[in-house]
Protein: Protein-glutamate methylesterase/protein-glutamine glutaminase
Organism: Frigidibacter mobilis
Amino acid sequence: MTPPTRVLIVDDSSTIRNLIRRRLDGDPRIIVVGEASDPFDAREKIKSLSPDVLTLDVEMPRMNGLEFLERLMRLRPMPVVMISTETHRGSAAAIEALALGAIECIGKPAADRLPEGFLHLADLLVVAARARVREPGPRTIASPPGDFRWNGRFVLIGSSTGGVDALETVLKGFPQDCPPTLITQHMPEGFLASFAQRLAPRIAPKLSLAADGAPLLPGQVYLAPGGESHLVMTAGDPPRCQLVSGPKRSGHRPSVDMLFESASPLAARCVAVILTGMGRDGADGMAVLRAGGARTFAQDEATSVVFGMPRVALEIGAAERAVPLSRIAGEILGLAGKDAAVRERTLR
């Protein structure tokens, strides 16, 4: 029998600590081993209590959560789930936390919605405790080819837990004139806007939050804006982005399944990829695309923070094969370029 996941709650607000504890105490998969009100208290309790995973507030006195996270990942890497307000400042900090190695970041409930807060936190912590913590240091990243020529295939990417780092790795391997690319990343609306602002200046193509009716053009990367809408792709000349209001699908809004299934009329002109993430969103939609002639693959287990979504896609035959993260950009460009032998270069 799997032992309970040991959780340390780190937050300067006693109200939030109590709310998190109440959410977790009734779950037999979890034991709350302690609470800390600031990073200095947390440091001592990590040493004495040996938790499997932390919940960590971004904004705290004496030392903010980002500074503590950076030190923790350098000295004692371990799974961390960040808790942040969904203000612009809080969302930007959340994205920075994910880039520093946090497994996931969730929004802190507003004062008038405290009873609804942290409903799915227990599930997330159980998965996070067993996630692959990214080691700090240099990584292998694909170098964009200088002679890419688009062959008319569109690229669709779905990602979740661990996706901030994975998407940056993939997109840094894209040339300025990359194939039109649509991305659904599981994340709250405010976090997605901050993610787009952080990522856009770091890559060669133009990246933006998808706008309703935007044409799918080479050199453009479109990120689902989330909120009340899903991002889907419409057939046309050219095909376009469409934002569709609706309930959650596969437990998410935006949903990868919604994006993938919407592209089925153009399946033979698509390359679909599932990156790291918990759950199974995207697997069924990818199966539809593959049956229609799309080329499909998933991130491999060794490089996934959470091998949930990719595992399901591979198990049901939706993904043709598993590919290491460092090779995914090259695989995409090889399938979406006129030269099928696009060469992947890496920086080591």
